[in-house]
Specification:
CATH topology of one domain in chain A: Glutaconate Coenzyme A-transferase
Order of helices and strands of chain A: HEHEHEHEHEEEEEHEE
Strand order of the largest sheet of chain B: 4-3-2-1-5-8-10-11-12-13
Low-confidence stretches of chain A: none
Largest interface: A-B, 50 and 43 residues
CATH superfamily of one domain in chain A: Glutaconate Coenzyme A-transferase
Distance between the termini of chain A: 41 Å
Radius of gyration of chain B: 17 Å
Number of strands of chain B: 13
Oligomer: heterodimer
Number of strands of chain A: 11
Structural class of chain B: alpha/beta
Mean pLDDT of chain B: 95
CATH architecture of chain B: 3-Layer(aba) Sandwich
Distance between the termini of chain B: 21 Å
CATH topology of chain B: Glutaconate Coenzyme A-transferase
Largest sheet of chain A: 8 strands, mixed
Order of helices and strands of chain B: HEEEEHEEEHEEEEEHE
Strand content of chain A: 25-35%
CATH class of chain B: Alpha Beta
Number of helices of chain A: 6
Helix content of chain B: 10-25%
């Protein structure tokens, strides 16, 4: 029997190694798997590279794992979230490497990794400082920048519903980066608000088919805090 | 005369002026800041569909605080609503709409716009400690049209419509029209063309606070 449910976050995050590249779902704090981030802190992996749209707000979740010094580098589009105190301190002190990627290029690099596309060209970023020392090629009269797929060792995902095959749905704007990140990592771990019996999810409304998911933990935490 | 002899438009009036030019049926992305005011001013008999980078089409007005839904936020991370007909999708689809040239119009704020359509709106220097680009570069390149909504000068009076941008670019040659507190200008192969000015203003007075040559229509 295929059963991707794990009894605890600790069990679901067992085996995560130091130096891992970790995709973290969410846009701001919505759809951000904070319970899994707490679990990763407990688990203890260090020297991580995190990929997320933002660089954390306040002192919880993403901000907390940064604050504890577990992260070497962050790849994001918008490090200045609502309250990026931790990021700003670490970055100014030279304790955190930053790679800024335009949001659409970030999404597409992640999608490409999940879809087996090693690299692509895009006009986004051409003629800007982000294109410095990068390969630019003219395609059909348009200058385009070379971008590589962004593969990861681990993806941390927040879902609304999950079944034991790992089929997932999401809640409104909490979907954001989660479905594409689920496709792009060697190990995809999900925290889900609700769990359902196999066959109870409408197949037409499954957003992430279970093939992209390895481990699911039931985390019914309620409503997110907007930061 | 100078621009100080006339009454400039306020932020809400600027947003209102721009909103009048959005035709029915357009898919529109509004950048954070002043551009978000535009949606409040689209005439109520005109159906315009607003897009938000975090995976929403059919964005409605902000809800009253007691009706806020914590699962529904806009790209500025404020509470949002969904209009009937609205939809949710993931980030790669959201940016496929932008980068695949499906969005009719993007409205962005800007630090500077140059007469060749270059826009600078994301970083104030190459040595910015932590520049935050978000979706601005994708939007500037991918939307079918990019309009800038911005004050004509900085608070201390320096021009923001310029010959060439001094701040790091968001995208080269992307802006087609600029709405300021003094004027509406088209960006053409011949530079800025003044379409409209606030009541009483002359093109000579507008030229004095603009660091690029202005042409009449």
């Amino acid at each position: 029997m295929v059963n991707k449910f794990f009894p605890s976050i600790a069990a679901a995050l067992a085996g995560v190694r130091d130096d891992s590249v970790v995709l973290v779902g969410g846009f701001g704090t919505i759809g951000q798997p904070n319970a899994l981030l707490e679990g990763l802190i407990e688990q203890g992996a260090r020297n991580l590279t995190l990929v997320a749209n933002n660089a954390g707000s306040g002192h919880v979740g993403l901000a907390r794992i940064l604050e504890l010094g577990r992260v070497r580098k962050i790849i994001c589009s918008f490090p200045r979230g609502t309250d990026p105190v931790v990021f700003e301190q670490l970055y100014r002190a030279g304790k955190l490497e930053l790679e800024i990627v335009p949001q659409g290029t970030l999404a597409e690099r992640i999608r490409a990794a999940g879809a087996g596309v090693p690299a692509f060209y895009t006009p986004t970023g051409v003629g800007t400082i982000l294109a410095k020392n990068r390969e630019v090629r003219e395609i059909n009269g348009k200058l385009c920048l070379y971008e590589e797929a962004l593969h990861a060792d681990l993806a941390l995902i927040e879902a609304w519903q999950a079944d034991r095959w790992g089929n997932l749905t999401y809640r409104k704007s909490a979907r954001n980066f989660n479905p594409i990140m689920a496709m792009a990592a060697k190990l995809t771990v999900v925290q889900s608000q609700h769990v359902t019996g196999l066959g109870e999810l409408d197949p037409e409304s499954v957003v992430t088919p279970g093939i992209f998911v390895d481990r699911v933990v039931h985390v019914p935490y309620g409503t997110p805090t907007i930061l | 005369m100078t621009t100080s002899d006339v009454k400039p438009l306020g932020r809400s009036q600027m947003a209102n002026r721009l909103a009048q030019d959005i035709p029915e049926g357009w898919y529109v992305n509004l950048g954070v800041g002043m551009p978000t005011l535009v949606s409040d001013h689209v005439p109520s008999d005109r159906e315009v569909i607003f897009h938000s980078e975090n995976g929403i089409l059919g964005l409605g007005p902000a809800p009253p605080p007691e009706e806020a839904d914590p699962w529904l936020i806009n790209a500025g991370k404020g509470f949002a609503t969904l209009r009937p007909g609205g939809s949710f999708f993931h980030h790669a689809d959201s940016f496929a709409m932008i980068r695949g040239n499906h969005i009719d119009l993007c409205v962005l704020g800007a630090f500077e716009v140059a007469e060749n359509g270059d826009i600078a709106n994301w970083a104030t220097s190459e040595h910015d400690t932590a520049p935050a680009v978000g979706g601005a570069m994708d939007l500037a390149v991918g939307a079918k049209q990019l309009w800038a909504l911005m004050e004509h000068t900085t608070k201390d009076g320096r021009p923001r419509l310029v010959h060439r941008c001094s701040y790091p670019l968001t995208a080269p040659g992307a802006v087609s029209r600029v709405y300021t507190n003094f004027a509406v200008l088209d960006v053409t192969p011949g530079g800025f063309v003044v379409r409209e000015m606030v009541s009483g203003l002359t093109i000579e007075a507008l030229q004095k606070c603009t660091a690029a040559a202005l042409s009449p229509m």
